[in-house]
Design goal:
With about 775 residues, the chain is α+β, with helices and mostly antiparallel strands. The chain has 25 helices and ten strands.
Length: about 775
């Protein structure tokens, strides 16, 4: 019976959790009240020892202890700076000599400082002891409550299928309805009639407004949605979402006005007043179910968050509406049963039909969700859009089918609490996840409205990150839906707020936030200075591009390192406590990360010595190309095939590197050419000299050199040696020279021979005429 109430109040409990402040019981400036704390602690210890208090009593005790614990946590930080200063002063005096004797002034000063330190540490130690006592009491109370919850869930109660329980259940239900009817019959009371007559005009006016909002509110909101859908335009998805909320708030406002009008009549008694108080909550559940169904399974396929076929979307919306009716019916039964102290069998008998009906509706919904698949293109390597959502939806559908089978069986046997704890949290969890999906779509539409690119907004990174954050925010809601207490969430937050200890240093979320802010500021300043140097300062100097890049990169590494040191210092993290961890890491670096460290050090050497720079034409390890980027671990070379080769920096420092453009771009081109035997060699030399001197990229000082190299097997071999202004043009110049040689040799009728061989037959007489 308690599971449904727990599920309905999930959101309210979370709001209360966020609203409440565990440390608000006392004035922070007054410090912990140890005397009052001892009384509360003694009372809690007695209650734990007897184990007779109710869960509500234990929860109140726990909340009070948690408030004291928060005060003690603050008490452990009292005089923290002064204590740290005194310890530093004592360390400055040095250790006490082994002989035990030291100068009187040093000994007196040491005694004075230690006395002050002990005086300041006294309240800290008291707070630490009280904190540990409070923390232990909280854990004991949590253990007792959890054990009780487990026993209640596993307890075997009356079976609703036992006919012996039916008469009692109908009798109790009749008594409850009779008591409610008797409250309504008090209209004959003259005082009530007089009060009703006085408020009748206002009551009628409020009821007219309420009925108009309840009956026509959704229709008015639908008209607005239809107009926005036709109007379209930028941000239409955002405006449609906001207007769709009116389908909840307009009828809900009407319910609130109607409830107030009915109370003004003066006819509400104790039970009737509780019904009126719950009426807006019931209406909110009905409207919320329907609104969420219309968002998930919208009538228009483009608006549906779960794009099923039309018939299945229509069926899903209908089943969601029926589920909301049964869900509220269960809450109504629980409300009526709570009016009087009825037999447990009554609640089991009255709740069982609703459990069965809910299960009968959940099963088709689960089957519909299980049928959701995203078709992929076999010819495309891209992951189809919505594949992850489809998997989650199918898992949710499977869970619905399984729960719809198991829960009624458990309730029929008599494990009603366990069945309810499985059925209703499953339904509430799906509603929460559906709401998260709706908000994620809204965030994507809002991002598209802001950026102006609505077509690509849903696939952008920002909406994905927002969806991840929404899932994290939904975890407390899911925990509450599945039986977690608000105290459990506050305990997790308290542990998170206290942080964790590394050595003598405790790191809290505030320290992380301080670290992040300082580091981000330092990192931003570093990037700003780098950009200023790269764009405005260094280009105006005579420094080459390689030196400019080295300065900018080195400044970046130094800036990030300083930002990290400042962030650690500003967060109050004591690095001395990490000495052991750093020693262990150094061993790991020495063995497992030596290659990475070697490349890192080599990268620093490259940036300082600059044997190569960006834009240089180099050859290393058989790879030739232009240096495009020098990072701290590797260097990227773009080959002449336009492919990128990543070379570890250690290879560039320890290996042999040929740099064709280091210092200057002057380089030598050698072209080999052969002419036929019998050709005038001086004439060939002159022609080749003219061709070389005609090339604009060839330097005249030193002049090009033509060498008659060798008497080859097939030709007279010449060699042209030319010094180029820019070696990057070597292929283009070689191409032009070869064309010029071919043209001039053709004009001068100089033959470029090809390989020739004379064939001698050793025994020609063995060859016979095969035609004879």
């Amino acid at each position: 019976m308690r599971a449904l109430t727990h599920s309905l109040l999930v959101l309210s409990l979370v709001l209360l959790t966020l609203w409440g402040d565990p440390g608000s019981a006392q004035d922070p400036g007054s410090g912990p009240n140890i005397e009052a704390w001892n009384g509360v602690a003694t009372l809690a210890e007695e209650a734990i020892e007897r184990d007779e208090a109710s869960n509500e009593r234990f929860e109140r005790l726990r909340a009070e202890i948690a408030e004291y614990r928060a005060d003690f946590t603050a008490g452990t930080k009292i005089n923290g700076e002064r204590i740290a200063t005194l310890r530093t002063q004592i360390e400055a005096l040095g250790p006490v000599p082994e002989s035990g004797s030291e100068p009187e002034d040093i000994a007196a000063r040491r005694t004075q400082l230690e006395t002050q330190l002990e005086t300041l540490l006294a309240p800290v130690r008291v707070s630490e002891e009280a904190f540990r006592r409070a923390d232990g009491l909280i854990r004991e109370i949590d253990t007792i409550i959890r054990e009780r919850q487990a026993r209640r869930l596993l307890a075997l109660g009356p079976s609703p299928l036992n006919p012996a329980h039916w008469p009692t259940a109908f009798e109790d239900l009749g008594g409850i309805l009779l008591a409610i009817g008797q409250e309504v019959e008090t209209l004959s009371d003259p005082d009530r009639r007089k009060k009703m007559a006085e408020n009748l005009p206002l009551v009628l006016f409020l009821m007219a407004i309420a009925l108009a909002l309840i009956i026509r509110g959704r229709a008015w909101a639908g008209m607005g949605l239809t107009y926005l859908r036709r109007w379209g335009g930028r941000g239409s998805g955002v405006w449609r979402f906001l207007v769709s909320l009116l389908r909840i708030f307009l009828p809900l406002t009407g319910l609130l006005i109607l409830t107030h009008a009915l109370r003004l009549t003066g006819l509400a008694g104790t039970r009737t007043d509780q019904i009126l108080e719950a009426l807006p909550a019931f209406g909110f559940v009905l409207l919320g179910f329907r609104w969420l169904a219309e968002r998930l399974f919208a009538r228009i396929p483009e608006d549906a968050l779960i794009p099923l076929p039309d018939t299945k979307r229509s069926a899903a919306r209908f089943y969601m509406l029926v589920l909301s009716l049964f869900f509220v019916s269960r809450a109504v039964v629980e409300l009526f049963v709570g009016f009087d102290d009825v037999d447990p069998a009554t609640d089991a008998v009255l709740a069982f039909p609703i459990v069965v009906l809910i299960a009968l509706v959940m099963a088709p919904v689960g089957l519909i969700l299980r049928s959701f698949y995203v078709e992929s293109d076999p010819d495309s390597e891209e992951v189809p859009r919505g594949l992850g959502l489809a998997r989650v939806v199918r898992v949710a559908g499977t869970a619905l089918v399984v729960v719809s089978i198991v829960s009624p069986i458990m309730a029929a046997i008599g494990y009603a609490e366990a069945g309810n704890a499985l059925l209703y949290p499953t339904l509430v969890s799906l509603l929460i996840l559906g709401f998260v999906l709706t908000l994620q779509r809204f965030s994507a539409d809002l991002y598209g409205l802001i950026t102006g690119d609505e077509d690509k907004a849903r696939d952008a990174l920002v909406p994905v990150l927002v969806g991840f954050a929404l899932v994290l925010c939904a975890i407390p809601l899911l925990a509450l839906a599945w039986g977690a207490r608000v105290a459990d969430l506050t305990e997790v937050w308290a542990i998170f707020s206290r942080g964790f200890a590394i050595g003598d240093t405790r790191i809290s979320p505030g320290d992380f936030l301080t670290f992040a802010i300082i580091f981000i500021i330092g990192y931003s300043v570093t990037r700003l200075v780098q950009s200023t140097l790269r764009v405005n300062v260094l280009p105006k100097t005579r420094m080459d591009i390689g030196g400019q890049n080295a300065i900018v990169s080195g400044l970046g590494y130094v800036g990030i390192f300083l930002a990290a040191i400042l962030a650690i210092t500003g967060a109050g993290i004591d690095l001395s406590s990490l000495a052991i961890v750093a020693g262990a890491l150094s061993v790991g670096i020495g063995f497992g990360l030596q290659t990475i460290v070697s490349n890192f050090v080599s990268g620093i050497i490259l940036l300082i010595e600059r044997p190569i720079s960006e834009g240089d034409w180099i050859e290393v390890g058989g790879q030739m190309g232009y240096v495009r980027d020098i990072s701290v671990r590797s260097t990227r070379i773009e080959t002449f095939d336009r492919t990128d080769v990543i070379v570890p920096n250690a290879d560039l420092v320890s290996g042999t590197v040929t740099n064709f453009t280091r210092g200057n771009k002057v380089g030598r081109l050698i072209v080999n050419i052969g002419v036929a035997y019998g050709t005038d060699t001086r004439r060939v030399e002159g022609i080749l000299t003219e061709i070389a001197e005609a090339q604009p990229m060839v330097l005249q000082n030193p002049p090009p050199m033509i060498l008659f190299n060798n008497f080859g097997a097939d030709s007279l071999e010449f060699e042209m040696r030319m010094i180029l202004r820019d070696v990057n043009w070597i292929l283009k110049v070689k191409n032009d020279v070869n064309h010029a040689i071919a043209e001039r040799f053709a004009e001068e009728e100089i033959e470029v021979p090809f390989a020739q061989r004379d064939l001698w037959l050793r025994n020609p007489e063995v060859l016979k005429d095969t035609s004879s």
